[in-house]
Specification:
86 residues, mainly alpha, 3 helices
Length: 86
Amino acid sequence: MRLFYIALGATAGVLIVRRLTRAAHALTPEGMARGVGDAGGRLGEAVSAFLDEVRVGMAQREDELRSALGIDDTSAQSSAGPGRVP
């Protein structure tokens, strides 16, 4: 029975030391840079997706405003003729 408790204590000790070593490494400059690099990829993707959605919304709103104001690029250019500003 003593052998069981010795093995259990040794296993727990190894696991605790490994976890503490990993936590200590995460607080070093290299560990922090790696953590930021890992999160930075996901953050970059999220920002890119957000900006794409904003661009789509801006284009839709511009179309709505042009329609509401009666400004249409194709009809304004053809009816104005050369040299005239719509």
